[in-house]
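From the pipeline queue, job 12 of 40. The input is one protein chain; the requested action is below.

Action: predict structure.
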Amino acid sequence: MNYYEMLYIASSTLQEAEREELIKKLNDFILQKNGEIITENRWGTRTLAYPISKSTSGYYVLEYIKLPSENLSDLRYFMQINEGFLRSMILRKNSVPVAEKKKEEAKKEEVRKTETVEKEVSNNGDRSE
């Protein structure tokens, strides 16, 4: 599985409920293709540098995902056929995204703390005998 940075622009003409449904549909598609959503950062509505499909603004979303490389073309096709997306850009990352690194470090820290507590408990138990 590879890590990807995906930035897409949803049409600003969509109602909030429609936009949420579109984003949910995309995330469900990624999960269905054995992918994983690491982080999702919604930037909100912003003015476009130039009009796209007669729209002057769009709703930006940045996601870091983990996806098998054979499913990447399916993801690109999914975004092309859904009319709610104005533009998308998917970049392969050579290293683990920062958010994923923080998760891994937090897990390691939690394991280390648990082991330390277990050692202290077992040492205190040995002393009391």
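Job complete. The beta strands are 2-11, 36-52, 55-67, 85-93.
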